[in-house]
Design goal:
The chain has 148 residues and is mainly beta. The protein contains two helices and eleven strands.
């Protein structure tokens, strides 16, 4: 419920879309802020909002999704509602995204492109655990393997 309140706070002045156009909008925003286009391989997106003044982004899908990035063998869980604050190469205060580590879901708090090297994406949890993977693992070509 905290995310609903957060979304309401940032809705004024935001660019909001609904339905099939959302995937295209998300890809453009990811590219604009130097993120790989396959980072959020979501289906059935009902709403996408982006407030450029605050950097706040939200996505609402019909249901939770589990996706395996084959090239790195990493499974990620995307909740039906995802939020974050976006700036160039950095997503902070991420909610609704978890990476599976040893079969245990670990909430992702920050995503940083270009760390620890220019061709890497680093995922950090709120308790400081982190993993870095090659940017190439999150290109659109890899976005085809999902389990629900």
């Amino acid at each position: 419920m905290a995310t609903v309140k957060l979304i309401e706070t940032h809705k004024q002045g935001a660019d909001i879309c609904h339905g099939s156009i959302c995937n295209t909008k998300i890809q453009k925003v990811l590219e604009e802020f130097s993120f790989p286009k396959g980072l959020l391989p979501l289906d059935d997106i009902e709403e996408f909002g982006f407030n450029r003044n605050t950097g706040f982004v939200w996505l609402k899908t019909k249901k939770k999704k589990e996706h395996k990035f084959k090239s790195i063998g990493q499974t990620t869980i995307y909740n039906a509602e995802i939020t974050c604050f976006l700036e160039k190469c950095h997503m902070s205060k991420v909610t609704g995204v978890k990476g599976k580590e040893l079969m245990i879901p670990v909430a992702v708090n920050d995503i940083l492109v270009g760390a620890p090297a220019a061709d890497m994406v680093k995922f950090t949890s709120a308790v400081g655990l982190s993993r870095a993977h090659p940017i190439s693992a999150f290109e659109l070509e890899d976005a085809g393997s999902a389990t629900n």
